[in-house]
Amino acid sequence: MLDFRVKTFLTVCRTLNYTRAAEELSLTQPAVTQQIANLERSYGVKLFSYRHRKLSLTAAGRIAYQGLSAIAHDEELLRHKMSASTSGSAIPLRIGMTLTAGEYLVAAPLGRYLREHPEISVTVRSGGTRAVLDMLDANEIDCAFTEGFFDKSSYLWQNLCTERFVAVCAGNHRFAREPRRLEDLLGETLILREAGSGSREVLVHALAARNLSTDAFAGTCTVESLDIIKIFVAEDLGISFVYEAAVEQECIDGSLRVVELPDTPMSHDVCFVRLKGSLHEKEMNELFRAVSRQRLSA
């Protein structure tokens, strides 16, 4: 059973705030402070530092967080497996997906895999890249498929695929001059995802590489739903940047078209991410290989 001091430590790591951690754990703030102090004495190191009124992990604290997160995840998964073995219930699997990766790249091959493995009961959580990784850190999911940027040194990860990231416009949209590079689109209204979205991060990085930002466009419109973005673009309210797989059908039926930018090609990896040091890495690898095979066989 996981030491309650470890649970307290992981909660403080996630919130970086003793008061919020105390509220989540239904403890007093002095009790949380005492438990962290006891853990620091046990390890013989400082786990947190407090500078400029801001709490942060020390180098030793980051190592502890990485290792203890994996232990907490393993303990939870082990508990579920033991329960399933005695009750005959399905084996739970909790997967996080960023919205574009989940709906257009992972859902179908994952569905085919689950059809072949009825002994698995899956729960799927969706959100932006940061939200999904926060779920992973908080042991709310077992693994994640994400197309956004993340600190690859903090997790185990594998590249599921590399997808083209393309500009799209309405099927009947006409440019004054057919664009060839990203800068040629700055006179258009840009319809983009909300802050924290993996797709938006990919675009922001691509623009920054050319010393540009979203403010360089003639106008911007922020929409949290990819489906609504596609409708707005089809109605010629502006252009957008999306993964090509997400607009495949709309390009076939002619409501949208890809704006080819031969002088500014863009692509990004979709990755399978999980915590380092897990005892269940073999099962995670098997899941990744199975989903990869299902994608290739479709």
TrEMBL record:
<keyword id="KW-0238">DNA-binding</keyword>
<dbReference type="GO" id="GO:0003700">
    <property type="term" value="F:DNA-binding transcription factor activity"/>
</dbReference>
<dbReference type="Pfam" id="PF00126">
    <property type="entry name" value="HTH_1"/>
</dbReference>
<dbReference type="InterPro" id="IPR036388">
    <property type="entry name" value="WH-like_DNA-bd_sf"/>
</dbReference>
<dbReference type="Pfam" id="PF03466">
    <property type="entry name" value="LysR_substrate"/>
</dbReference>
<feature type="domain" description="HTH lysR-type">
    <location>
        <begin position="1"/>
        <end position="58"/>
    </location>
</feature>
<dbReference type="InterPro" id="IPR000847">
    <property type="entry name" value="LysR_HTH_N"/>
</dbReference>
<protein>
    <submittedName>
        <fullName>LysR family transcriptional regulator</fullName>
    </submittedName>
</protein>
<dbReference type="GO" id="GO:0000976">
    <property type="term" value="F:transcription cis-regulatory region binding"/>
</dbReference>
<dbReference type="InterPro" id="IPR036390">
    <property type="entry name" value="WH_DNA-bd_sf"/>
</dbReference>
<keyword id="KW-0804">Transcription</keyword>
<dbReference type="InterPro" id="IPR005119">
    <property type="entry name" value="LysR_subst-bd"/>
</dbReference>
<comment type="similarity">
    <text>Belongs to the LysR transcriptional regulatory family.</text>
</comment>
<keyword id="KW-0805">Transcription regulation</keyword>
